TrEMBL record:
Organism of derivation: Cyprinus carpio (Common carp)
Protein name, as recorded: WAP four-disulfide core domain 2
Annotated TM spans: none
Gene Ontology terms for molecular function: serine-type endopeptidase inhibitor activity
PROSITE patterns the record matches: WAP (PS51390)
Entries under Pfam families matching the protein: WAP
Domain WAP: 22-66, 67-113, 114-158
Length: 158
């Protein structure tokens, strides 16, 4: 029984260490303080409860919810610049699977586009000066949105 309790205690301690190690890896500190901190004067993530991170801002070290980078790629801007306002600072500010993307002047939440496997072949032949696609998700099957001599078009990956 003592042997079992010793193994149980060691295993519990190890699991706690692993949990705190993983917790320190999950998320990152947000670029700006946009929420009320859950506590102040922390030294490390271990000082914060509820999965919050210890982050340093102008007001000192505080515990705040972590920021996360969501999967996917922000769409290319079609033309010009968008509204010069900051509607988000990082992906954590955006709902569902949306990412915080630049619109050429500010940042807005946008649905990411799909990046399909494979590479685009080098442009060749007659110039195609039109934008037939902006990202892989607009192309059928395995085709990718690839640069042409002066635009973009769907083509088979190489």
């Amino acid at each position: 029984l003592i042997h079992f309790l010793l193994i149980f205690t060691i295993t519990t301690q190890k699991l706690t260490q692993i949990f705190f190690s993983l917790r320190n890896l999950l998320g990152h500190c947000p670029a700006k303080l946009t929420v009320v901190p859950s506590s102040r004067g922390c030294v490390s993530d271990k000082d914060c409860s509820g999965g919050h991170k210890c982050c340093v801002f102008d007001c000192g070290a505080v515990c705040v919810p972590p920021a996360f980078t969501k999967p996917g790629v922000c769409p290319r801007r079609k033309f010009g610049a968008g509204l010069c306002a900051e509607f988000c600072v990082n992906d954590s500010d955006c709902p569902n699977n949306e990412k915080c993307c630049s619109n050429g002047c500010g940042h807005v939440c946008m649905a990411p586009y799909t990046v399909k496997p494979g590479r685009c072949a080098l442009p060749k032949g007659t110039p195609v000066c039109a934008e037939y696609c902006y990202h892989d998700g607009q192309c059928p099957a395995e085709q990718k949105c690839c640069p042409t001599t002066c635009g973009h078009a769907c083509s088979e990956p190489c």
